[in-house]
Protein 1
Amino acid sequence: MSGLPTVVWGEDQVFCDGPAPELDAEFFADIARNLLSKSTQVTVSVDVDDAESQVRLAVAGFVVQPINAEAPEEDEECVTLERRGPLESLLADLRRLPAGAALGMLAMDGARGVDLDCGIGLDIWGEGALAATRTAAIARGISLDEKPPEDDLNDH
């Protein structure tokens, strides 16, 4: 049985494919808890494309972020909402969203972070990234298939 494809650049940079879609948000939350202190003030951003989720997040104190005019490939229906605060409180707000409502999530405290692009994967960076990912995978019963990055620069 193969594990979740995971590219490891080092102890402080990991990219892994997303697990089954129904586990994306929980795996993201587990990694964020392991990487970022539960009491740390962090910034959490969430991408949604439905009005109900946008309203739920706004009521929880999330603020709509301006659209990046330099990124025309972005989905115009998608809205990014952001809030700064204690990690566990922000994760609780995300758990109140309907399953599959978030298209992406980002939690960071400056030098460390977790970025989930639902359906694509998770980018984890900063001190302790690999350990946080491994711990979250073990807790969820997910096997990681760790590999070094492919270095196609050596082919030239």
Note: Residues 152-156 have pLDDT under 50 and may be disordered.
Protein 2
Amino acid sequence: MMKHIVLTFTSILLNAVAAEPLRAIVIETPAPRFVTTTLGGIAMQCVSFDSRTHFMRVLDQANGPGTQWADAQAAAVSVNGLAAINAGFFTPQGKPLGVVIANGKKAGGNNHSSLGAGVWYEAQGKTAIIRRERCNFNAPHLMQAGPYLAEKYSAVKGLDAVKTSARSFIAWDGGTMWMMARTAPCSLAQLAKALAGACPAGFPIHTALNLDGGRSAEMFVSDQVAGG
């Protein structure tokens, strides 16, 4: 089922330059790609991209789950997204369980539990995942989620090691490389241990943040993405 919030990414549109300079520094950036892999015994599907050429956006269903898009694919298609993933939990009343800011429109409130431990945001050309305590919650694009799975290349301690479920998460190399992923059933502790410092999509994971769990941990990847 399509949940309250979906995180999608698409390409940055670049204007053509009329004339090339005599000298130019060409920085090659990796194209988005989809891979299926196994880490620490956990099967997962991952889609990676570089934030210098692509960007993520939060899509919020203001009237609750399933009211605007039937699934992640429908949400992605609505904004020409290349991929989309269900992101974040919500209350029994259908409101976000944490702060969500979609294109400047804010919903929800600060979640002080582990489910709101981290914040993904984009503001003034910068994209990052930071701890809740460091966030002022005023970026135009923002989503609070949790728990943290990995931080500074290390697994976060104290996570549940018993309950298993399909998971969705985002991961970051601390620079410009990002990944959305969906896993087979696993515990949070098992996933954290598997992710810390690993390279499932071609870059080492510096930070990883849990997004969702269970049957609603849905991800869509367009066939425009290599391997998708």
Note: The first helix runs from residue 72 to 78.
